[in-house]
Design a protein that fits this description.
With 107 residues, this protein is an alpha+beta fold. The protein contains four helices and four strands; from the N terminus they run ββαββααα.
């Protein structure tokens, strides 16, 4: 996976950097978790300091446009971002429970 930052803007009021990046992936669109890991490695911060706004990919294209925000701390991220955004890209608790449940017999 190839990663390149296209635009970076500092926003001192919210203690963050607004980042526009491009990811080139040969396969399918990468999961949000993989993109968060790339950004955390690039900026040297924890994964909970990053909020991904969107991942956009044109049909048939290998280039994915990423819009994200990199906060200086997890507290700043939690204060500025809505809770539902931090939950995006993670598995729900109910989904895992359904997958582990054995199939019942049909009568």
């Amino acid at each position: 996976m190839e990663f390149k930052v296209v635009k970076e803007e500092k926003n001192p009021f919210y203690e963050r950097k607004d980042v526009l990046a491009e990811v080139i992936e040969a396969g399918a669109t990468p999961p949000r978790k993989a993109v968060v890991e790339l950004l955390a490695k690039k900026y040297g911060c924890a994964e909970d300091c990053i909020a991904i706004d969107h991942l956009r990919q044109d049909y048939g294209s290998k280039k994915i446009t990423v819009s994200a925000r990199v906060y200086s701390s997890a507290q700043a991220c939690k204060a500025a971002e809505p809770e539902w955004k931090s939950k995006r890209g993670t598995k729900k608790a109910g989904v895992e429970a359904k997958a582990e449940k054995p199939a019942g017999k049909k009568a």
